[in-house]
Amino acid sequence: MTTQFEQPAPPTAAPRPLLRRSRSDNVIAGVCGGFARWLAIDPVIVRVVLVVLAVFGGSGLVLYAVGWLFIPMEGSTMSVAEDFFRDPRQADSKWRTFFIITGAVIAVIIAGNLMGAAFGGWGNGGSILLLLAAGGVVLYLMKYQSTGNSAAPTAGSAVAEQPLASGDALAETTPYAYGGAGQYPGYVAPPATAVAVRPPRPRSYLGLVALSAAIVAVGALLAAEASGLISVPVVVIPAVALAILGLGILAGAWFGRARWLLWFAIPTLLVTVLVSFIPASFGNNVQRVVEAGIGERVWTPTNVVQASVPHTLGVGSAQLDLTTLSIPPNATSVPVNASVVVGELLVTVPAAVRVHVTALVNTGNLSINGVTSDKTRNVSFAGDLPGGPSTGPVLDLTLTTEVGNLEVSRA
Amino acid sequence: MRKHPLDVFSLLAGLIVLGFAIAYLIGAYSSYRLDERVVLPLLLVGLGGAGLIVAITGQRRAHRLVATSDETIGD
Q1: Which of A170, A280, A377, A390 has its C-alpha lying 20 to 30 A from A120's C-alpha?
Q2: Which of B1, B9, B45, B63 to mutate to test the interface with A (most CBs of A within 10 A)?
C-alpha cells in the first residue's frame, strides 16, 4: 500500500501587518515607526516627510496627532481616541489630559498673537512657529501618556491581538495539502516576534520638588518685598522661579523625571519677558498714574506761567501744543515739563523758535522732527531741535514717556 | 532617586531654561539687557534641536536593537 504525497503548497507570503503604532521603533508615540512598518519602508523616510510637512504649513504635526489619536498601539485593538471615550476608568485623568492639552494649545496661540502684536513682524508666522514648537513638546511629552493609555485592552473590548509566541503555533494552525497538522520536513519555525512591553517607570518626585520650590520662592520674594525686607527689581521674581524650574529639568537628565516642568517653565519665561518691560520706577509710576489720571489731554499753554506748570498724564494720549505760547522777548529760557507714564505724548513747537529738547523714553519709540530712533528701550535725546534759529530765547523742553511713544515736531 | 542613563532632552531643555533665567537675573542688576526678540527664536531652536537629537539617537538605538536581535536569531 503506498501513500501518495502531494507536494505541500508553499507557505504563502506573510500577510501585510495591520497598521499599528510601533512599540519598539518609537521616538515619540510610534506613529512613524508603525506607519513605516505597514508600508514596509525605512522609518527615516516617514520621519523626514513628516518633519518637512510640519515645517512647511504645519500639516505634519496635525497628521502625527491624528495618527497618535486614531492608530492603536501595537498589541492593542483600541486607539487612544477609542479608549478615551469608551473606558470609564481613569476618566478624570483623561479629561485632565484633554483639558491640559487644549488649554496649552489655546495659551500658545494667544501667546503667539501677543508676541505678534508686541513685536510687529511675527504675526501669524509667529503663532504657527509657537504652535509647532509647543506641539512638538506636547507630542514628545505625550510619549509617556501613550505608553500608559494603550498598554492593555479594557474589559469588554475586543480580544487583543496575540503575538506569535513560537513557530509551533503557526504549524498547528496551518493546514497542509497532505492533511493533518504538524511540521513538515524541513520546516523552519519563523523567528519569535516578541512584543516589547515597556515596564512601568518608578515614580519620580523631582519635578514636584522643583515646582514646589519655585512656588515657595516666588511667595517668599513677594512677601519680603511687600514687607519691605528686601527691594528687588520686579523681573527677579519670575526669573528666580524660572531658574528653579530649569534646575529641576536639568537634574532630571540624571535623576528621576522632570520633563513635564517645561509646561510651567515656558509660561514662566513668557511672564519673565513681559515683566522685564516694567521699568525700575514701577512703584513711583503707579503713584504717578493714580495722581495724573487716565484719558486724553490737550495742553495749549499761551503764556509762560501756564507753560511752567508740569503737564502730566498717567495713562492715555497727550498733546502739548506750544505754537500759541507767547514768549517774552527778554526771556532767555522758558522751561516746559511734560510726561506720560503709559501712552503717547505729542509735542508741537513753533517753527521760528529755538528749542532745546531733553527727552527720555523707557520703552517705546522716540521721534524727533520726523526721525524715529531705532532703539525702543531707554531711548534718549538731548540737544537743539533742528530747523530753528540758533539764537534767541530757548524753549527748554523736558519730556518723558515710561512706556509708549514720544514725538516732537515743528509746526 | 536612582541615577539613570543621561536624558539628553532634559539636559538641553534644562540648560536653555536655566540660561534664560540667568540672563534675566544678570540684566536685573547690570546694564545688560536680553533682547526680547531673541527669546522666542532661541527657545524654538533650542527645544527643537533637543528633540532632533533625541529623535536621531533614538533611531540609532532602535537600529542597534534590531541588528542585535537579528544576530541572535541568526546564531
Answers
A1: A280
A2: B1
